[in-house]
């Protein structure tokens, strides 16, 4: 079998393996096995599963080395399987659950229809992603946990590899619950921050900043970035924002930032930047999700970000690699 055949058949087998991982994540198998091996029947009882069906899934998971047989009918976690626990810092449980959520599963399965018609089958059935979350709080909670965990390596890269102005005020545009802003402020004790997001998000961000002891250095401002953003900031951060929007909307957001920023201010865009070659890359995988889930959402190359910034009267100055596939694009007034 050729290498290309291996890749193709590996992708075919991958759907079954992902389904087994999704079952493990949804049933919380790793949490149940956290303190040692369990008999498959007892494990089924604890997670409310049909024991004969669970044994078949456990056999597949053992072949993937996330669990291993222990005794006649027992299973234990492997070192790899520990990452499926919900209580470890690098847990992937919420990421797997999010990708297996009904709407996401539908979106990826209907990517051919999206490509045929040029509009997202997901949006046609479920509406905008964030409306879907608003209508399904449990799904929104899984997504929030996924995004928080996904942001950890990017955020650590941001504070380690980028030199912020010592006394700057940073406006975190669409900053969500405030985890990135909190980390930046902790690493830069003379900086101040403004978290800007929709009103229903702003309250949760205020709770995060208060819990971090940062209420005296950070304020939360509700609003819509298509209308305006807070004025007078030295630094404007847009983390995983622009890839949700097509070029026209991305330019609208950036123009509002350009109008609000100080003459010597800077814009920081934290995204996955696509390479110009044909090699496999995280951004290319993410771009399939953006295509499936959003009308207009897209991952971009350096040149494509430069073009969007230029239309907003901004100039790309530098790209800093943050690790884990993410990059920080620094821009300033043209």
The fourth-level CATH homologous superfamily of the largest domain is Vaccinia Virus protein VP39
Number of strands: 12
Global shape = globular
Evaluate the radius of gyration.
Answer: 22 Å
Name of the level-1 CATH class of the largest domain: Alpha Beta
CATH topology of the largest domain: Rossmann fold
- Strand content range: 15-25%
Distance between the termini: 54 Å
CATH architecture group name of the largest domain: 3-Layer(aba) Sandwich
Mean pLDDT: 95
Total separate domains:
2
Tell me the structural class. Answer: alpha/beta
Number of helices: 15
Order of helices and strands, N to C? HHEHHEEHHHHHHEHEHEEHEEHEHEE
What are the segments in which pLDDT stays under 50 over at least 5 consecutive residues?
A: none
- Name the helicity range: 40-55%
Tell me the strand order in the biggest sheet: 6-5-4-7-8-12-11
- Largest beta-sheet characterization: 7 strands, mixed
What this model shows, in words?
- By secondary structure, the chain is of the alpha/beta class.
- The protein has 2 domains: 3-85, Arc Repressor Mutant, subunit A, CATH 1.10.10.10; 152-333, Rossmann fold (3-Layer(aba) Sandwich).
- The chain is built from 15 helices and 12 strands.
- The strands form 3 sheets. A 7-stranded mixed sheet has the order 6-5-4-7-8-12-11, sandwiched between helices.
- Strand 4, helix 11 (179-187) and strand 5 (192-197) form a beta-alpha-beta unit.
- Helix 9 crosses helix 10.
- The N and C termini lie far apart (54 Å).
- InterPro entries: COMT-like (IPR016461), COMT_C (IPR001077), COMT_dimerisation (IPR012967), SAM-dependent_MTases_sf (IPR029063), WH-like_DNA-bd_sf (IPR036388), WH_DNA-bd_sf (IPR036390).
């Amino acid at each position: 079998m050729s290498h290309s055949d291996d890749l193709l058949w590996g992708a075919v087998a991958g759907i079954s393996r992902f389904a087994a991982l999704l079952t493990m994540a949804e049933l919380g198998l790793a949490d149940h096995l956290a303190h040692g091996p369990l008999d498959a029947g007892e494990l089924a009882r604890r997670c409310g599963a049909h024991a004969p069906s669970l044994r078949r899934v456990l056999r597949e998971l053992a072949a993937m080395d996330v669990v291993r047989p222990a005794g006649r009918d027992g299973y234990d976690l492997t070192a790899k399987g520990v990452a499926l626990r919900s209580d470890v810092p690098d847990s992937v449980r919420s990421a797997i659950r999010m990708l297996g959520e009904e709407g996401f599963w539908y979106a990826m399965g209907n990517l051919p229809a999206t490509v045929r018609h040029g509009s997202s089958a997901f949006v046609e059935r479920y509406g905008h992603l964030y409306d879907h979350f608003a209508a399904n709080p449990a799904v929104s909670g899984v997504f929030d946990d996924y995004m928080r965990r996904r942001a950890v390596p990017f955020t650590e890269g941001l504070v380690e590899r980028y030199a912020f102005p010592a006394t700057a005020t940073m406006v975190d545009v669409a900053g969500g619950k405030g985890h990135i802003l909190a980390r930046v402020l902790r690493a830069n004790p003379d900086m101040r921050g403004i978290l800007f997001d929709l009103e229903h998000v702003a309250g949760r961000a205020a709770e995060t900043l208060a819990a971090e002891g940062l209420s005296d250095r950070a304020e939360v401002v509700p609003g819509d970035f298509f209308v305006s953003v807070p004025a007078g900031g030295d630094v404007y951060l847009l983390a995983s924002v622009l890839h949700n929007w097509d070029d026209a909307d991305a330019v609208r957001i950036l123009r509002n930032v350009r109008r609000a920023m100080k003459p010597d201010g800077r814009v920081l865009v934290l995204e996955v930047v696509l390479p110009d070659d044909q090699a496999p890359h995280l951004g290319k995988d993410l771009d399939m999700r953006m295509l499936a889930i959003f009308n207009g959402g897209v991952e971009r190359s350096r040149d494509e970000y430069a073009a969007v910034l230029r239309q907003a009267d901004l100039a790309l100055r530098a790209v800093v690699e943050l690790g884990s596939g993410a990059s920080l694009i620094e821009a300033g007034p043209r």
